[in-house]
Amino acid sequence: MARVWVAQCKIHGFHVQKNVAAGFRELYELAEIDHHPEAYYPLGLCYYEGWVPPYYRPQYDMAFDLFCRVSGYSHQAQYRAGLMLTLGQGVETDTEKALVYISASAHRGNQYAQFTLGLYYEYGLFVPHINIKEAWSWYELSAHQGFSEAQTALANILLDQLKQGAVESKLLKDGLYWLHQAADQKNPSALIRLGSLHEQGTLVEQDFSKSIQYYQKATEVPSGSATVTALAHYLVGINYRLGNLGLERDDAVARKHFQVASDLDYAPAQRALGLMYAQGEGVIKDENKAYSLFEKAATKGDVRSLGLMAHQLEHQEGCKINIDLALSLYKKAAETGSVATQLALAELLQRKGHHTQAFKWFIRAANETQSVNSKGVSSILDLNISLLQQRHAACLMIARYRFNGWGGIEKDPSWAFQEIKRLALDENYTEAYYWLAACFEEGIENGILMPDAGQAFEYYEIAALSGDLESQFQVAYMLSNGYWKNTGGEGKLTKDRETAFTWYSQAADRGHKTAQYSVGLYYEKGLLPVQKDLIKAKDWYERAAIQDMTIAMIALGCLVIDEKSDALFWFKKAADKGDVSALREMAWAYENKWNEPENAFKLYQQAAEKDDAVAWQTLSHFYELGLAGQEIDIDMAIHCLEKANRLGYTRAALYLAELYRKQDMVEEAFAIYKELEQIHTSDTTIGWLARLEKVKFIIYKLNSSSVEHKMAYHALCNMSRVKNRIRAEAMEIIGYCNEQGIGTEKNLDTAIDWYKQCIANSNSCELHSIRSTCKLITIFMDLKQYTQAYICINDLKPILDDLSRLSDEGFQQARRVCYFLGYLLFHGLGTTKQAEEGLGYLKTASEQGEGDAAFQLGLYYQSTENEEAVLQFYQGVMANHPGCIREWALSLLSENDYCMLDHDTWRKGASVLNWLEIAVSLGDVESIYQTAVIYETGFKSVFSGNTKDITKAKEYHLKGAMEGHPLCMLKTAEWLGGFNQYNESIEWLQKAAARNMLKAHIILLSYDLQGLTGGVKGLEDVYFRKLEIVLQDNNMKSEPVTLTNRRSQESKIESDKEGRGLGWYLLGQCHELGKGTSISIEIAKECYKKAVETSSHINAMWRLGVIYSLEEDDQEALFWLCKASELGNHSHSLYQLGLYHLYGKVGLEPNPAVAKKYFTKAADQGHPQATFELARILWSQSQHELLIAYQMYQSAADAKVPEALRELGYLSHTGFSFRGIHIVKQDYRRAFGYFCEAAQFGDPTAALMVGNYFEEGYLSDIGQDWDRALQWYESAYHLNCGGLAELAIGKLKHTIANTMLDQRQAEDLREEAFVWFESAADDVSNNVQRATAKVMVALYHINGWGRKSQNRELGFQLLLEIAKSEESEAFIPIAKCYEFGIGTHRDMIMAAEYWDMAADMDDPEALIRMGQIYEHGLLEEANQTVSNDYYERANQVGKISPRSGQESINSSSSSASSLFSTQTPISSIN
User: Fold this and answer.
1) pTM of the full predicted structure?
2) Which of 297, 592, 913, 1371 would be 302's cystine partner, CB 3.0–4.6 Å?
3) Which residues lie closer than 8 Å to 1433 by C-beta, 6 or more apart?
4) Residues 6+ apart with CB under 8 A from 1451
């Protein structure tokens, strides 16, 4: 062993002189001659690395042989052998065998093998599938051994878990720990990731200085891989190039780093460096060098570089880039062996239709053995993952070519399927999963593969989770429409529309047109999990329509149906593309919306000519009723329905049956029976039957009088006494009369007796006996005597099948008994519960048209199989069942696609609301409530369009309340309370509370707390305690949930949840405001959080946001306000978030664009302040939206937003034009009105402007009124206007003093003015105004105004201090002081310097004075040219339009410079 170490020391030069040849010879002797196993691995390394004299080249075959010899006990040798098998070095590639070696090495603790296994599992390389958990485990083992690459990989997995939502502090802590461990070892990948984290600032504190330091450290690592080192240099370079991360732009440093990365063949760096040469920035412009760099990047598949090359060619040579040139560029790059370019070339050729050529390049890309570097791959770290993906893409295209036989390629679906399966399952190639799923969904002909929707969905989902667009849509589609999944040998329909929406949204955001249409459908129908939003629906439909999707065009047409021109545009566009349903939809619009039936009829005919079945059905309606100028033609109507039926429109048969029923001749039938009665005596069968049928008509069908009923009943009693078998039927009818109270008093006991007599006097198989038994069953069921009912049913059970085939009447009776039997068995009433058997009977009865059975089944299926529920309710609609009619109508609001019904059918019959009205007329109180909900929420029914109508909603809720519906009672009470009709509200709340409506209890307590119930005042603590008790009571009794009241019960549960949430919110208000308890913000927060947890109470979220904002907990405040805006579109929260983004508060960067979005949402809800802020943003940032901004200012002003009134005042004061168009006309009177109104609402600046109007006398009828101006300035001061008001008061008092003849009074006023100037000078909120005030203070010292001791030197020094602060207001006074020697020695040079500084500020006085200085040669020889330049500038400045209203205060005659030059002449100072 020692000799082996000595030999290795010679090879590496460890503590001895390096001698590779001698070390190799010694190892060779030890291994091959002396056969020392310890020498095999070191000797193998020599062969692997090329440390073999005399040629010193790698001999992989020898290395592999030696590694294999010791692979049984050396984990290093196992790792090396596995690596060589993976890369095909010295041996044929065998990934399965390689995996065995590497796995064995890893299990024996080799850190490199452990890392390699982690890499395999993370990316799905050579293992069955991606397994992040397994990768995590292997990375962790290697990381604990100190391998920095494993530490980095482990950190990345941990941090990526955080990105996916598993937010755990331990994950973040561990991830950062391992990153720092790797970074301490100068691992460049770890350094780059740390830099990225600090740049993004999401998981760690944002710190640009740390970010760039990490990037720079990564560039300094000498042993990093070329790719990572290049990336590090690129990141440093690009940030210096753009001046990001707090760096100053430095093209020289950027070029240096780009050059290093470019030399390492990093395409983005080559492109960036090429751009510098192309633009001549940081380097001498060199188009040829730029082109060369772009070309290098393009050969690596950098498509943007190809575009830049094309741009150069187009603009340099004057030729237009074309596909052929692109092909030549691709081919040039592809010939170098770039798989990415070969793939891009093949795809471009395919798009051009050159399938044969494309196939050849796909073959070459799939088989390309591109090496990572010229020295050969020496580590698994150098495996090019993207290269594998590109080769997989090529292999997939080859499989698709073989599957379809494109370009004359031999078609082989079986081989193609196996290849696709290999790419998906063995190689874990995402896109292959999509095509594998498609194979399973559709199957492959000739028995190669049978369709399997469940398996297809699994594969689609795998691809979707990996980001495949088409797979995301397919997953959404299958979940939305349902698919059959085989489980345990049985098929089960799987359907989940809420999850489907998530996938639809992902695909739609990425541009998938069918997904965009589907998302639009969700928003139009308000399908869970979204609320109805027609604006969003329209937006998504338009996106799909732009991509030529006709169904989206039709949907758009229907959505904008009230805008005829827009609707016609989309309908016609769809029709022009061959969609016949567009003709029908257009026809419907002409008929029902635009009142043009003739045009509708023509369009229906056009659609019918194209064999549109629904159009045929609709035409029958025209012929039946004689619409659109057509004559009534029943035969033609029948023909149309028959045609529709033949075309497969199954509902047409129903309408045909309805049409035949309408032709029933009842009176004629009754006349025949009367005639038979006259001819035949009662003792004959014919006479008996004629009389019986006549009585039956009187009892059952005709609208007979009570006298006729009594006569018929008397006749029946006489007939029952006749001794013959026929009398039994008379007994049956007598029983019916007693049951219904026809011709006699209603008496169920008597009815039961007569039915039993009928049965006793009949054979069990006779119809009247059967009917009587059925009547008994019905009565017993109504009386809940279920055991008696079940006994009767058992009597009929043996003959039910025969009965159903006997006649229509027998069929109906059998159907009804079947329903009762199913009901009893399903619920276990009167017998042992047998749910499955009961369901079977219910299904049979429903299929036969039994409304009650359909209703029971519909309710049962509602929670699991909605489509089946809809079908069952439809069955009940046909039976005129009120509950089914209601549920069917409601299903139309939520379903967008039916297997049995088409919207057009019901457009002709009745809208959803019509159906509900029918149910109401049949006594269904629940339908009253549901109708109210529809009017309230504005769901779109099929016939009536947008049915939102709050007035009608109130009417129906009141109607339902009067019928005893508790939810209607509650809603009625809430509306009455909203209109301050508290007495009436309290009455309904008390009734609702008596019906156990929790929300009613809570609202009553809120009324108590507000003192609205008329109770004793001062009992807030009592009401507060009651509220606590109600919220703590979790045992409030609920009505039992049954199939028949499930919908109402669900609504009640939701109402109770809202009530409990409201209760917690009210409790929070009590604690926050000290209502009935002491103030406790912490308890208030807890209550608000419970309100949110209980019912997502939006106002509670908002209050939490406000409280946390006041507590300066920015993150929590932001969280709750965001939640309130996202979940409830809460206007106050949206407005607050807008302010945060606008001004960069709570840790956010100022972002007007984001702020604009929030303000827009709040403004859409009528939020006045948000409207104002939005107007300000639009006015300042968007020249094309000035009119909109102005209108928004007006809207905000109408809502009495003082800031908006003030802004409108400014605009009216100055006027505003844009590109010659008058946006706002200058109008002092209107401006004055705006300012006055804003001031009345407490706006200090507006009050200042009103004072300015009085001071300047802008309005002729008011004129100058300094006293009123002073009053307004003082009002502004009291409104906290600060320095602006103080300065205005001081200036005005100073101006007034200058006009006074009484100098004592004038000095008194100046004394007051000086105090105001001093105060204004201390105001730091406005630098310009503060400087003006300071100048005025200095001038007071210079001139000795206001009884100040004249101290010119002090005044002059004050002016100099102002000027040193770069305040230009002091320049002219200083210039005059120097020019006339005031407070300093006379110095014309210094005077000219300050005059010139003021002139640079475009001050007219200074410009004129400089002109005079050069004209008269006051400094040097006269220079008329320079003098004229100054005069011309002064002239130009004089033409500048007046400043805005606020600025006019600053430029008034009382400014510092004007006071110095005009109010007090220089001579007086001297």
Assistant:
1) 0.43
2) 297
3) 1399, 1402, 1407
4) 1443
